[in-house]
From TrEMBL:
Membrane-spanning parts: none
Signal peptide: none
Swiss-Prot/TrEMBL catalytic activity: L-seryl-tRNA(Sec) + selenophosphate + H(+) = L-selenocysteinyl-tRNA(Sec) + phosphate
Protein name: L-seryl-tRNA(Sec) selenium transferase
InterPro entries reported for this sequence: PyrdxlP-dep_Trfase, PyrdxlP-dep_Trfase_major, SelA-like, SelA_trans, SelA_trans_N_dom
Domain L-seryl-tRNA selenium transferase N-terminal: 7-46
Organism: Mogibacterium timidum ATCC 33093
Domain of life, source organism: Bacteria
Repeat is among the record's keywords: no
GO biological process, one term: conversion of seryl-tRNAsec to selenocys-tRNAsec
GO MF annotation list: L-seryl-tRNA(Sec) selenium transferase activity
Cofactor: pyridoxal 5'-phosphate
Length: 468
C-alpha cells in the first residue's frame, strides 16, 4: 500500500469529535482541551506513518486509523492528562520524615483548617476587631511566644530562606563566626558557606572539623564581626576525638563582646524525645540559654507544613520583618492555617504526642506495631494467597536529615513471591493507582507498619492482589 493511501485513511478531527464518547469530555475538560488533544494524537499518527519504512508500511494495520480507534486513543490520553502530577502515596518505608515523600504528614485539625481557610476569604492581613489592615506576621506571634519563650517570631517559606534572611538582616557586610565542623550541606548542594555569600555576610571559620573550643571563637572576633553562629549538625554525626562549644558557652562569649548569637537548629523539635533515643536539642530549651535568634524547619520534627521559623529577640526579628527579602520569602494563608493548628497541639505535650503524626509514629510502642503487622499480613494473605508473607523486625528511621544515628526498633510485613522477583513486585506497587512505596531488604519487600496508618492497609492489600 502506498504511503499517501494510508495517510488518506486518517480521519479528520471534526469527524472524530462527533463520536458520542466525547460528550462528557467536552463538559469536564472543555471543548478546546479535547480538540487540542485530538489534534495532537492525529499529528502523532501522521508522523508515525511518514517515518515508516516501505516494508513496515506494507505491514501497517490500517484498522488503527478507524474513527473509533482514534477516538479511543484520544480518550485514553485525556484520562492520563487528568492525573495530577502531585498526588498522595503510601509510605511503607519506615522512614518517618521521608524528604522525597513530602516529609511530615499534617495532623487532622491542620488539614481541616487549611480546607476551611482556603475555600474562601480569610483575615490573613485584616484586623477584624479594628476593621483595618493587619499583618500576617501577627498570626502566630502570641502562640509561639507562649510555647517557646521567645520575644517575637517570623515565618518564612523554609529554613534555607530563614538562614538567608537572618544572615542578611543581622550580618550583611560583616563576618559571621562559625565552627568548621558545622559547615553543613543540607541537601541539593545547598551549603552554609554558599548561603553566607548570597546573604552578603562573610564566613569566618574557626576550629577544626572535629574540635572547636571557646578560645577559637574568642580569637576570631574582630572589629568587623557581626555575629556568632552555631549550626546543629542534624544530618551527620562526628564521633570519637571531638569537642564543640555548647550554646550557653557561646552565649557567654557573645555577651562579653556584645555580639548576637544565632542558632540554626534545623529540625524544629519542640519536646524532649530522649526516652525514644532522640538526644536532640529542642526549641524552648535552646532559647532558654539566652541565644538571640533561633531558626528551624516546620516540616521536620515539629510535624507541620514546610516553613522556616525564626524566633528570638524582638529587636532582631523586627529588623527582619522590614527587610526587602521578607516579602519574597513570606508564606501564604494555607501555611499559616496548618502551622497554627499544629502549634496549638504543643500547649499540652500529651496532646502533641497523640495528635501530631510524626510524634505519634516516633513514640508508637512495639505491641501496637505488632498488632498492626498482624492486621496488615492478614489482609495481604486474604487478598493474595500466592504470596509468601511473614512478620519481621525492622529498623525504622527519623529521616529528613534528623538524627541519622538513631534507628527505631520497628516491625514490618515481609513479602516475596515464587513467581515474581521482589524488584518486580516493588515496581508494580509504585505503579498502582495509589502508589505504595516500600523497601527491599535481603530480597524481601518490607512494609514497615510504623509509617502505615490503618486506612491504608486495604490499599496495600489491593495493590498486591494481582501479583503472581
Amino acid at each position: 500500500m502506498k504511503r499517501n493511501e494510508v495517510l488518506r485513511q486518517i480521519p479528520k478531527i471534526d469527524e472524530v469529535l462527533k463520536e458520542h464518547l466525547f460528550s462528557n469530555a467536552f463538559e469536564i475538560s472543555g471543548r478546546d482541551v479535547v480538540t487540542a488533544m485530538a489534534r495532537r494524537v492525529i499529528d502523532e499518527v501522521r508522523s508515525e506513518i511518514l517515518s515508516l519504512s516501505e516494508a513496515a508500511l506494507e505491514a501497517y494495520d490500517t484498522t488503527r486509523l478507524s474513527v473509533s480507534q482514534i477516538a479511543g486513543e484520544i480518550m485514553d490520553r485525556l484520562e492520563e492528562d487528568e492525573i495530577n502530577h502531585l498526588h498522595g502515596v503510601i509510605n511503607a518505608t519506615g522512614t518517618i520524615l521521608h524528604t522525597n515523600l513530602g516529609r511530615a504528614p499534617l495532623c487532622d485539625d491542620a488539614v481541616r483548617n487549611v480546607e476551611m481557610v482556603s475555600r474562601g476569604y480569610s483575615n490573613l492581613e485584616y484586623d477584624v476587631k479594628l476593621g483595618k489592615r493587619g499583618s500576617r506576621h501577627d498570626i502566630l506571634q502570641e502562640l509561639m511566644v507562649e510555647l517557646t519563650g521567645a520575644e517575637d517570631v517570623m515565618i518564612v517559606n523554609n529554613n534555607a530562606s530563614a538562614t538567608m534572611l537572618v544572615l542578611s538582616a543581622m550580618a550583611e557586610g560583616h563576618e559571621v563566626v562559625v565552627s568548621r565542623g558545622e559547615l553543613v550541606e543540607i541537601g541539593g548542594a545547598f551549603r552554609i558557606p554558599d548561603i553566607m555569600v548570597q546573604s552578603g555576610a562573610t564566613l569566618h571559620e574557626v576550629g577544626t572539623t572535629n574540635k572547636t573550643k571557646p578560645s577559637d571563637y574568642e580569637k576570631a572576633i574582630n572589629e568587623n564581626t557581626g555575629a556568632l553562629m552555631k549550626v546543629h549538625t542534624s544530618n551527620y554525626k562526628i564521633m570519637g576525638f571531638t569537642e564543640e562549644v555548647e550554646l550557653d558557652e557561646l552565649v557567654d562569649i557573645g555577651k562579653d563582646h556584645d555580639l548576637p548569637v544565632i542558632f540554626d537548629m534545623g529540625n524544629g523539635l519542640m519536646v524532649n524525645l530522649s526516652e525514644y533515643g532522640l538526644d536532640e536539642p529542642n526549641v524552648p530549651a535552646s532559647l532558654a540559654t539566652g541565644i538571640d535568634v533561633i531558626l528551624f524547619s516546620g516540616d521536620k520534627l515539629l510535624g507541620g507544613p514546610q516553613a522556616g521559623i525564626i524566633a528570638g529577640k524582638r529587636r532582631y526579628i523586627e529588623k527582619m520583618k522590614k527587610h526587602p527579602l521578607a516579602r519574597a520569602l513570606r508564606v501564604d494563608k494555607m501555611t499559616f492555617a496548618a502551622m497554627e493548628e499544629t502549634l496549638k497541639k504543643y500547649r499540652d505535650t500529651s496532646v502533641a504526642m497523640r495528635d501530631i503524626p510524626v510524634l505519634r509514629m516516633i513514640s508508637t510502642p512495639r505491641d501496637i506495631l505488632l498488632g498492626r503487622a498482624d492486621k496488615l499480613s492478614a489482609k495481604i494473605r486474604e487478598a493474595n494467597d500466592r504470596l509468601n508473607v511473614r512478620i519481621v523486625d525492622a529498623e525504622d528511621q527519623i529521616g529528613g536529615g534528623s538524627a541519622p544515628m538513631v534507628f527505631l526498633p520497628g516491625v514490618a510485613v515481609a513479602v516475596t513471591s515464587d513467581a515474581t522477583t521482589t524488584k518486580g513486585i516493588e515496581r508494580a506497587l509504585r505503579k498502582y493507582e495509589i502508589p505504595v512505596i516500600a523497601r527491599i531488604h535481603e530480597d524481601e519487600l518490607l512494609f514497615s507498619v510504623r509509617t502505615v496508618v490503618d486506612r491504608e492497609m486495604d490499599d496495600i492489600a489491593a495493590a498486591l492482589k494481582e501479583v503472581e
